[in-house]
Every structure is written in C-alpha cells, then in structure tokens.
Design brief:
By secondary structure, this protein is an all-beta fold. The chain folds into 3 domains: 102 residues, Immunoglobulin-like (Sandwich), CATH 2.60.40.2550; 144 residues, no CATH class; 148 residues, no CATH class. The strands form 8 sheets. Strands 8, 9, 10, 11, 12, 13, 14 and 15 form an 8-stranded antiparallel sheet that branches. It has a 5-stranded antiparallel sheet with strand order 3-25-24-23-20. It has a 4-stranded antiparallel sheet with strand order 5-4-18-19, with no helix packed on it. Strand 18 and strand 19 form a beta hairpin. The radius of gyration is 24 Å and the shape is globular.
Amino acid sequence: MKTLLLSISILLIGISSINAQAISDSISLQTSYADQVFYQLSSGTKTASNTQDWDLQFFSSLFSASIRINGGFDAELYEPSNSDTTNFTSTTIDTVGANLLRDGNDDWQNDVFTSTATGHPDYGWGVYQGTGLLVGKKVFIIKTTSGIWKKIWIKTISPSGPVTFVIANLDGSSSVTKTYNRTTYSSKHHFYYDIDNDSLLDAEPLKADWELVFRKYSESLGALGYYNVVGGFSNYNTGIAEVRGVEVNTAQANWNSYSFDSSLNVLGHDWKSFNNSTFMWELEDSLSYFIKDNNEDVYQVVFTGFGGSATGMIYFTKELLSAASIDESSPFVNFGIYPNPTHSVLNITYELKDARALSFSIFDVNGKIVKSFNGNSGVEGFNEGAISVEDLNSGIYFLRTETNNYSITKRFIKN
C-alpha cells in the first residue's frame, strides 16, 4: 500500500492508493436477533437499535398515512367486527371474529393499518377530510411484542405534522392519548413507539446514511403461511439487482446488463436456507446482489455466512464496481461523498485511472465559492479523504472536483 499525504490544510486525513477489491464485512443482530442494524455501503457504518423495544413504526413524511407494526417480534393487529370509535373508553371491544391484518413487504408504505384501504379518500384506518387532514374511523385490536392485548385508535394525522392516537385496555381503561409531530423526525424516515413502556424511540440514522437494514420480520412463505424470518430491507429508492445461478465473477463482469428494482424486499431473506438434514444454514454460491448506494455508486454484495439465532451474525463481501454518474471519458472510475447530510466532515472516495492533480471547490446555492483548494492529490487507484465543513452554515452546497478539462459536481447538505 502506498500513502500520499496531502499538503492541503483543509483535508483532515491522508489519501491512500489501493487496488479496488472485495471487502469482507459483517453485522451482528445479537442473540435471538434482538437488534436491527442499518448499514451504509460506502463507509461500512452500522447503526444498531433494539428491535424488541417498539410496537409501531410511524412514517415521518407529511405525505404518508402509513403505520407498520413489529411483526417479527409477534406484534399483531386485528380489525374487529365492530370497529366503531364511539365510546372508545367505556366500551369493551369484542375480539370474536376479529380479522388479522398484515404488513406488506414489497414497499415501506404497504402497511398493516392501510391494508383495508379502498382508495382515496378511504385510507383503511381513516378518511381524508381535505387540506391534508386524515381522521380515524376505526378502532383496532393490537397485541404488543410482550403479548399484552390493547385497543388502538389512530385519531388524526395532520398536514402540519402531528399524529394523534389513543391506546387503552380492551375494556377502555388505562386510556392514553399521544401526539407526536412528524416534523421532529424529518431527517429520518421513521420513528418508533413502544406501547408497553409508553416510550418513543429515535432509532434510525439520517435518511442518506443507510441503504440496507437487517432485521427480523414476518413474511408469507406461500402455502406454509406466515413465519418470522431474518433478512434485509432496502432504503427508499435504493436500486437492487438480484442475480441467481450465475457465478459471482461472471455476474460482476455483466453487472450493468441487469435490471435494478427499488422494491423493499429484493434482498429479503432467501439468500440463505436451513438444511433440515444437517441442521445448518446454507448459502448459495452463485448469488449476487448489485446495489446502488445513495451516491449512485454500484456495489456487488455476496453473502458468505449466517450465524442463526445463536449469534445473529451475517457475513458478506462488498466490492465497489462503478458509478452511474461517471462517463467513459472520465479519468474517474467512480466518485462518491458521505455522509450526506453531514454535520462536520465530508468524506470523499474515488478511483482514478491514472495519477493526476485535482482541485476542489465548494459552492453555495448562489454559485459563490465558499472553499477552494488545490493539490497534487490524486494517485492511480482508490483514494479517500475528508474535508472539514464544520465552519459552513447549514444549507445546500455543491462539491466540485476538477482535473484538466474534466469536472464532477456532487450536491450535499450541511446540517
């Protein structure tokens, strides 16, 4: 490995040149899959939170009417035969004939509470009233992850942000009304609520700081019915191409011929299977996933091991292949920045076809240069560095990298 230290004072770390290659990595869901882990491909950052500490997953988007449940840890939602909201606190809800509802796993917003929706203005649990307001029309029965039975009424979702819901015992006692403003969590996709402990969890990294989340969840296995499985979901609009039955190196050589799908469960759980004869987990040796990260860089991910509930370990390799934003005439094989948004440091990764001098400039939205620096900073192969942006005001900026007559511009947000 060859290391070249930059003479530019604004860079915080050195830049190294290495051959691009598959990197082995792993995540731990802990024993019995107690954690969910969010993963960022470019940095390898893992953000873990206890998966058993929530029952409801709320969406932060002001344009979403969806609420998911923690089905992987046996939270269940039922629609009773009489779901009238009248006299919520004084009427015992009838559980006989209640219909079990399920989250869908093809889209984040294909959720359990809207699963009975008939179309606008009916959103299953509530009805659109105009000007962005939804008002709840049903009471549901919910079993929490600890096995406690409650009833729940989603009262309103307001266009300005607040969501209000009521939870009580089945006979209406111990009623608790909660209101949370979704705008508080606008930098995240979701926030979480634990019914038994009446607590809110801010469990996710920033929207742009992850592509995959591994967790235990409930999934339909066809004729076998629903089972709790362990696997990976993708972030919103993360494109994934699953390639089965093709040797890993052959698949890599043809990665740009495959179709990318942004469905939630392309990765899913079926990259492994349990052998009932050997009582061991097995992985396919001709299965690749090509994943576009938040910088549009493409990685090949190959699972190499699974520890099961005893350890909760998932093992895999990842290899950076290319970026859709880089054209053939570019001296760059790929170029990416992370995290985005960032608080203090903007990391840069890029691979050059040959050694060359680079210049870097940061512009604000008005086109004004707020930072500019030069240096003999690019060596052939893979490079990485970090730029301090701590002194910039919060807002949208653009990083421009130039060499000879070629430039690349990347948009980022300073929080």
